[in-house]
Specification:
Helix content is 40%, strand content 20%. By secondary structure, it is an alpha/beta fold. It is an enzyme of class 2 (transferase).
Length: 323
């Protein structure tokens, strides 16, 4: 019988699990709540207990698996299989994740950063078409990403390779970023960044707009509200989306001018705007990209949604498949 892969996508609110075939097909998936109480000490034991329960439920044993892969927030040491500084998990101190899971389950374990893992998922069985050169940009509460070049993730000497959200797109008049710099892509293209940009542009916009009125009134406005209004013909909301497209087009062109990937895949919550956003990014990408890059690098929308994490995590475990 062919071996299976187990993927774990560890997040601040939930832990998602998937059992996959060796070619990336999800056979079973489930999720549990992430218990971050008491410095997150329950997280790893909860993961182990959940896997043991499911294997029993499905009539599987550790011999059925080639390996387990996990994507985690924080600073990941891939060699030691540890996580440090994942503050949304209350993991300030280093956590011996891999040692505990391997000891309890008897299955080889691999781990990487959650954004990198999502990139692996999209590259393997999503919009990346298993191409060896793919860039993944995820637009959520922040802007993250992963770079796969010549079939391998780029990690950098300190593990900070692929910090696409911190490309500077507005050096002079930009917003302050949590990283300490000014004008990072994250400040204008994340879910909160879109709204922040809307507030700025609303100051000088004259004309009818429900979104501008809501911003001026101090009402709660989300990035989804902005995109929905723009698609419905709100000219002010459309100007905000256009500006977001400009920043993403500039950033993706700069990445592509260096790497010339087969594709830049845009995922995360903000990417739910789909072609409405992709086409704007493409327009500015074409303006700023190097001639050969314009012709060869494609801008795509992600295909795997919430499954990118478990699929990419499972792909880490492919290294344990016996030849």
């Amino acid at each position: 019988m062919s071996k299976k892969l187990l993927g774990i996508d560890l997040g601040g609110t939930s832990v998602k699990f998937g059992i996959l075939t060796l070619d990336g097909q999800v056979q079973e998936k489930w999720a549990i709540e992430t218990n971050i109480l008491e410095d997150g000490k329950h997280i790893v034991p909860d993961i182990i207990a959940s896997i043991k329960h499911r294997l029993e439920l499905y009539g599987l044993s550790n011999d059925d698996f080639a390996g387990i892969g996990m994507g985690s927030p924080g600073a990941v040491d891939r060699t030691q299989k540890t996580v440090t500084g994942a503050f949304n998990l209350n993991w300030a101190e280093t956590q011996e994740v891999g040692a505990a899971i391997e000891a309890e389950l008897g299955i080889p374990f691999a781990i990487d950063n959650d954004a990198n893992v999502a990139a692996l998922g999209e590259r393997w069985v999503g919009a990346g078409d298993n191409n060896p050169d793919v860039v993944f940009v995820t637009l959520g509460t922040g802007v993250g990403g992963g770079i796969i070049a010549d079939g391998s993730l780029i990690h950098g000497v300190a593990g900070a390779g692929g910090e696409i959200g911190h490309i500077i797109v507005e050096p002079e008049e930009g917003f302050d970023c949590t990283c300490g710099n000014k004008g990072c892509l994250e400040t204008v293209a994340s879910a909160t960044g879109v709204v922040r940009l809307g507030r700025l542009l609303a100051e000088n916009y004259e004309g009818p707009s429900a979104i501008k009125a809501a911003i001026d009134n101090g009402d709660s406005v989300t990035s989804k509200d902005v995109f929905t209004a723009a698609a419905a013909g709100d000219k002010f909301a459309d100007s905000v989306v256009e500006k977001v497209g400009f920043y993403l087009g500039l950033a993706t062109a700069n990445i592509s001018n260096i790497l010339n990937p087969d594709s830049v895949i845009v995922g995360g919550g903000v990417s739910a705007a789909g072609e409405f956003l992709r086409s704007r990014i493409e327009n500015y990408f074409q303006k700023f990209a190097f001639p050969q890059v314009k012709k060869s690098t494609k801008i795509k929308i992600a295909e795997l949604g919430n499954d990118a994490g478990i699929i990419g995590a499972a792909s880490l475990a492919r290294q344990f498949i016996e030849e």
